[in-house]
Amino acid sequence: MCSVEGIGKKGGMRIGVIKGGGGGASGGERVDKLKKSSRMKVWIIRATTSVLLWTCIVQLTTLGETWGPRVLKGCPSCFSHQDSSVSAIEDKLPSVPARVIPPKRVYKNNGYLMVSCNGGLNQMRAAICDMVTIARYLNVTLIVPELDKTSFWADPSEFQDIFDVNHFITSLRDEVRILKELPPRLKRRVEMGFVYSMPPISWSDISYYHNQILPLIRKYKVVHLNRTDARLANNGQSLDVQKLRCRVNFNALRFTPQIEELGKRVIKLLRQNGPFIVLHLRYEMDMLAFSGCTQGCNNDKVEELTRMRYAYPWWKEKIINSDLKRKDGLCPLTPEETALILRALDIDKNYHIYIAAGEIYGGDRRMASLAAAYPKLMAALDYLVSLESDIFIPTYDGNMAKVVQGHRRYLGFKQTILLDRRLLVDLIDQYNNGSLSWIQFSDTVKETHERRRGQPSKRLVIPDRPKEEDYFYANPEECLQQRDGQLSST
After folding, report:
1. Number of C-beta neighbours around residue 290 at 10 A
2. Parallel, antiparallel, or unpaired for β 112-115 and 141-143?
3. pTM value?
4. Same domain, 270 and 162
5. Looking at 212, 237, 252, which one is the last position of a domain?
6. What is the DSSP letter of 337?
7. Number of structural domains, the chain?
8. Domain end: 252, 286, 302, which one?
9. Same structural domain for residues 266 and 247?
10. Which DSSP helix (H) or strand (E) runs through 224?
11. pLDDT of 339-388, one tens digit each?
12. Residue 35: which H helix or E strand, with range?
């Protein structure tokens, strides 16, 4: 008489062993044979099951997080007994959109490009966009850019401290391969000093990089570009090149989640009190020392700024006539001048003003006029808040003013008042000496700036004088959706 008893489960399959009964010698032999046969069957079943299980595990691991849930979801028996209360809870949860990662671009890698950015954050931001574009059209692998740590502010931040590095890499993977560091063998060579390093020529066409830089990368495997500001020309590039620069700037270069969250909190606080203005007031000590602009400063301050200018050897211009530079519109407006302009533009004094700047040179004394005219001043967070403000007003034409201006154009031509400093300082002087009445002064200021509010416009092109033409990142017109027909020429 025989019976089958379960001895356990393995991989969802029940394994059994046959037990025999009966007596006598021949019966014992039969029992022994049955036992041996049963043990063999058990071993075969166990071995087969183990192989099947291991194969399943390997396959599921390979499929990973992307396909795993789909496999389970597609299996009718997996969730057939799911509790209805769990379904009800899941229905109430907000759906999170799946992160779309573009497919990798497949191409023959010509080598590796390392870059060290120079300048302030917004100068480096534009440079990173150029370097990604150059790497893509040279078919080389870009190493995550190194940020400047030797500028006036000596900021120790790494790329990943400012920008979401994983988003930067994955969001561009259909265009260019980006790595956080060189492969080990090449990294060791670079650490030993075996790397070809050079500054590329400023305002160069993409063909320069094909003809001059690509052969060097192929020869040395790794090339390090040690200066990156303004290394790609504003104009004369293909539409694909220009659009990729915009894609990097407006989509791939996203701040870290912590910075984004802080920006949202500040913007929410500002919005609770109605419209707000971001005033990019470039009246910091280093800016005044560099530009040589000393309007409103006493003799002690002028001497201090002059000493600072001579202390930095890479600031090449030493002897500067502040009055002439101001009349040419090459100086940042002072806080006192800015207060006059805001009033002349009929900016509501109840608007909150967010100062996007460092420490204002001269402190409370220089800010007194502006604070009296606009008592609801606030300190700065800069870029994120500047993008979201109702009005953005830069008082000097620096890199932040340019990049934010371009980004606000991209977001729908949000109002950005671009001050004509050369005209304004003349009007201010006339008003201060009594040559112009307040009404004449205000009307002229408003009329002058009616077409200087960030509307669609053609980018100014000056052949062979790229520094004097409109900066690409201030007006990336190839990437902007045209409104009301063609872009104006003003």
Report:
1. 17
2. parallel
3. 0.77
4. no
5. 252
6. H
7. 2
8. 252
9. no
10. strand 222-225
11. 999 999 999 988 999 988 877 888 788 888 888 887 765 754 689 999 99
12. helix 25-73
Residues in a beta bridge with 415: none
Which residues is 43 bridged to in the sheet? none
Q: Which of 30-44, 301-315, 379-393 has the highest mean pLDDT?
A: 301-315
Given a contact cutoff of 8 angstroms between Cβ atoms, the answer to whether 109 and 220 are in contact is no
For residue 36, the SS3 value is helix
For the segment 6-36, what is each residue's pLDDT rounded down to a tens digit? 333 333 322 222 233 333 444 444 445 444 4
- CA-to-CA distance for 466 and 208, rounded, in angstroms? 16
Cβ contact 109:177 at 8 Å: yes
Residue 100 located in a structural domain: no
Contacts of 364 (CB under 8 A, 6+ apart): 371
Q: What angle do the packed helices 438-448 and 421-432 form, to 10 degrees? A: 180
Nearest partner of 379 among 266, 258, 275, judged by Cα? 266
Burial of 353 (0-12, 13-18, 19+ CB in 10 A): buried
Tell me the C-alpha to C-alpha distance, in Å, between residue 87 and each of 75, 80, 83, 150, 290: 17, 12, 7, 57, 65
Instruction: Examine residue 49 and state whether it is found in any structural domain, yes or no.
Output: no
Strand residues in 263-380 grouped as ranges (E)? 276-280, 352-355, 377-378
Euclidean distance between CA atoms 232 and 225, whole angstroms:
13
In this structure, the answer to whether residues 231 and 137 fall within a common structural domain is yes
Helix, strand, coil proportions of the chain in percent (round to 5)?
Answer: 50, 10, 40
If DSSP codes are grouped into helix, strand and coil, which group holds residue 342?
Answer: helix
**Token pair in block for residue 33:** 């044979």
Q: In this structure, are 247 and 344 located in the same domain?
A: no
Which residue type does 488 have? S
Tell me the one-letter amino acid at 411.
L
Structure tokens at 214: 């690509």
User: Given CA atoms 393, 396, 400, 404 in this order, what sign does their dihedral have?
Assistant: positive
Burial of residue 203, with CB atoms counted within 10 A of its CB: 0-12 exposed, 13-18 middle, 19 or more buried: middle
Both tokens of 328, joined, read 């040419």
Q: How many residues does the chain have?
A: 490
| Residue 280, both tokens | 């990019």
- What is the distance between the alpha carbons of residues 369 and 377, in angstroms, rounded to a whole number? 12
Locate all alpha helices (DSSP H) within 76-171, ordered by sequence: 84-92, 121-138, 159-162, 165-171
Residue type, 122: N
3-state secondary structure of 120: coil
Residue ranges making up the domain that contains 339: 257-479
